[in-house]
Design brief:
Endonuclease Iii, domain 2; 2 domains; 7 helices
Length: 163
C-alpha cells in the first residue's frame, strides 16, 4: 500500500503539487494507479485513465506521463500555450485542451521532453505574459508577436494573414 511517505508519491507530488493546489490525496491516488499500470498500458490508455480521475485534465495527465513515467508526452502548460500562440502555431483563442489536441501529436516524440522544458524556461525568462522581453528574444524573427504583426503569413493575433 502506498502512503504519503512513499518515494513514488513524493515524485508525483513534485509533478502535480503545483497543479493541484496542494492536494496530496490526488498524488497518492495517481501513485497507486501508476504502480499498477506503468508497464501494462500504452500511453493513450494511461492518459485516458488519468483524465477519468476527478481534477485531472490533459496537462496533468501529460505531466505525469512525461515526468513520472518517462513517456513521450507533451504537456501544454501556460508557458507552452503562450509561446505557441505568439509564434502562430495555434490560433490566439485556442483553449488549453484544444491546444493539447493540436500540438502534442505534431511534436516528434524524441524531442517532447526537451522542447517542453525549453519552452517553459523561455516562457519564464523571455516570453513572459506581462512585459515579454522581445528585444532580446532569439525567436523574434519567427514571432508575429515580437516582430510587431506579421511573420510568415501570420497576423499578430495568431490567425493566418488575410482571414
Amino acid at each position: 500500500m502506498l502512503g504519503p511517505d512513499s518515494s513514488l508519491v513524493a515524485l508525483i507530488l513534485g509533478v502535480v503539487l503545483p497543479l493541484s493546489a496542494g492536494d496530496p490525496q490526488r498524488a497518492v491516488a495517481l501513485a497507486g494507479m501508476l504502480a499498477l499500470v506503468s508497464g501494462a498500458l500504452d500511453d493513450a490508455a494511461v492518459e485516458a485513465y488519468l483524465e477519468s480521475l476527478p481534477g485531472v485534465g490533459p496537462k496533468t495527465a501529460a505531466c505525469v506521463l512525461l515526468f513520472a513515467m518517462g513517456r513521450a508526452a507533451f504537456p501544454i502548460d501556460t508557458h507552452v500555450h503562450r509561446i505557441a500562440t505568439r509564434l502562430g502555431w495555434i490560433p490566439a483563442n485556442t483553449t488549453a485542451e484544444k491546444a493539447h489536441r493540436l500540438l502534442a501529436p505534431r511534436v516528434p516524440p524524441d524531442i517532447r521532453y526537451d522542447l517542453h522544458v525549453a519552452m517553459v524556461a523561455h516562457g519564464r525568462t523571455f516570453c513572459r505574459a506581462q512585459r515579454p522581453r522581445c528585444d532580446v528574444c532569439v525567436l523574434r524573427d519567427l514571432c508575429a508577436y515580437g516582430s510587431g504583426g506579421r511573420v510568415a503569413g501570420w497576423e499578430l493575433d495568431g490567425r493566418p494573414a488575410g482571414r
